[in-house]
Amino acid sequence: MKRGLILNLLSNVMFFISGYALHYFLGNTMPPAAYGIVGTIITVLDFEYMFVSNGARQSLASQISRRRYDIRDVIAKTTAFQLLVIAIFFCINFFGAPLFGTILGDDSLDFYFRVAAGLIVVNGLQVILLGINDGLQRFGTSALLSTVYPIAKLGVIPLIIFVFRDDPVLGVEVGFILAVAFTILLGCTLLAAANHAPFRERRADRIPFREVAKHTLSFSFFFIMVSLVLSMDTLVVKATVRPAAMAGYYTGAMNFGKIAYYLLQAFATVSLPVLAKLIGERRRTDAVQRMQEFVMLAFTFILPICVIISTSSSSLLAAFYSADFRVAAPALSMLTFSNFFMGMTVLLNMALNSFGSSRFSDALSIVSLVVTIPLFIAAATYGGISAIALASMACTGLAMLATLLRVRATAGAPISRRSWIVLGANVVLAALSAAVFHLAPTDNLLILAVLYAALYGVYLGVALIAKIGPFADLRNLKALFKRG
């Protein structure tokens, strides 16, 4: 479990490094309005990826881990249902492109949304490979594929420089499509070369197609809610906030705000098959203990990143982009916690599904769909980008709190005593970090990186000396590093 978690975290770190290198290039070579168009296209795709990607991947991982049905039958029927979903969203993007342009107030978006339809196809096929590897608990292969993809996306830079100099937005889309296609080819090669005993196991039970559809759609519907809360605000800003440059500034803030969510995705990726396997083996007590460990590790290693970014938002945006982006600093301070809250909500809902409870996730999704969109529109209209970021943080905070209460009632307390102590340590870190960036503000990216490393290192050093959280048992810590 811990080895898989470390590998997936490392792959997400590479995702950030590659992604921010790309956004640094785009943000510094394109005017804010054009950069806002790229952010709008990516935001819409993020929304559709939640439906096309997470449903099939999580459903496959859960069903394969439980070993209840014949694995080949599960893969075949899930792939068939995934192809149906891909076809629907391809048609929405390709034939509905003019409507997107009208709604978002930019007719130039029509062509780009038609090209983006190709991304839906390749991404939808890629996650089938990821779901199979997750279900087989081949987390190393999943991490490898998740690492190769963002590195391959850096091919966008030479494409824009040498091929799509006059149309960089198209260059971004073509580069993304080629990157996913290469990752699929590599994934198929690795899967074909591996020797998997579970594939040779033949089980009499065949999974009903309606169960595949129900299970996949339940995950998909939940991740649609996640996407709406984390991505719809960017679209609302694009459509309602003026001047148009504000969409670019908000895109810059969102890029850094999502760090916590993407890191916590590694926890969700590993936790679902691990907990589902324990539940399938009727080891409920062990499953609860593992759930508490996931939460404690998230509080120990991911929450401090949010704290440091939130207290240094103005310096970060000025150093990475330009001084003009400081206007989005309050938004970034709130968005980083909004994304952490939503990442924890996803992690806890994966735990609920492992324990056999999915109705709460469905109910949470419905309530969020009803509340989020009108709240975001009102916040952006009357308060601008800072108000909509506050609305996002409020929504995700309430969703996390509701899920915590539900998990406690269904499975057991997700937050252990060690986790509460870690939360207290993060409060102290917040005070220290705020003081450092108040006394020593900087717009130099290198100096900022040094300050980040120093603050995070001091935090981990104190936690180690004080034996806080996972550092309380050094034997387990040594085993973790050994496996890593």
List the topology elements:
Layout: H1 2-29, H2 32-66, H3 71-95, H4 97-103, H5 109-135, H6 139-153, H7 156-163, H8 168-193, H9 197-200, H10 209-240, H11 245-257, H12 259-280, H13 284-301, H14 303-311, H15 313-320, H16 329-354, H17 359-410, H18 417-439, H19 445-466, H20 474-483
Helix pairs in contact: 1-6, 1-12, 2-3, 2-5, 2-10, 2-11, 2-12, 3-5, 3-10, 4-5, 5-6, 5-8, 6-8, 7-8, 10-11, 10-16, 10-17, 11-16, 12-13, 12-16, 13-16, 13-18, 14-16, 14-18, 15-16, 16-17
Produce a short descriptive summary.
The chain crosses the membrane at residues 7-26, 32-53, 74-99, 111-132, 144-164, 176-195, 216-239, 259-276, 297-321, 327-351, 363-382, 388-407, 419-439, 445-466. By secondary structure, the protein is mostly helical.
Amount of beta strand: under 5%
Number of helices, where a helix is a run of at least 4 consecutive DSSP H or I residues: 20
Q: What is the N-to-C succession of helices and strands?
A: HHHHHHHHHHHHHHHHHHHH
What separation lies between the terminal Cα atoms? 10 Å
Overall geometry: globular
Helix fraction by DSSP (H/I, runs of at least 4) = over 70%
Q: Helix- and strand-based class?
A: mainly alpha
Report low-confidence residues grouped into runs of 5 or more.
Answer: none
What is the C-alpha radius of gyration, as a whole number of Å? 22 Å
Biggest beta-sheet profile = none
Total beta-strand segments: 0
How confident overall, as mean pLDDT? Answer: 81
GO cellular component, one term: plasma membrane
GO molecular function: antiporter activity; xenobiotic transmembrane transporter activity
Membrane topology: Multi-pass membrane protein
Keywords: Cell membrane, Membrane, Transmembrane, Transmembrane helix
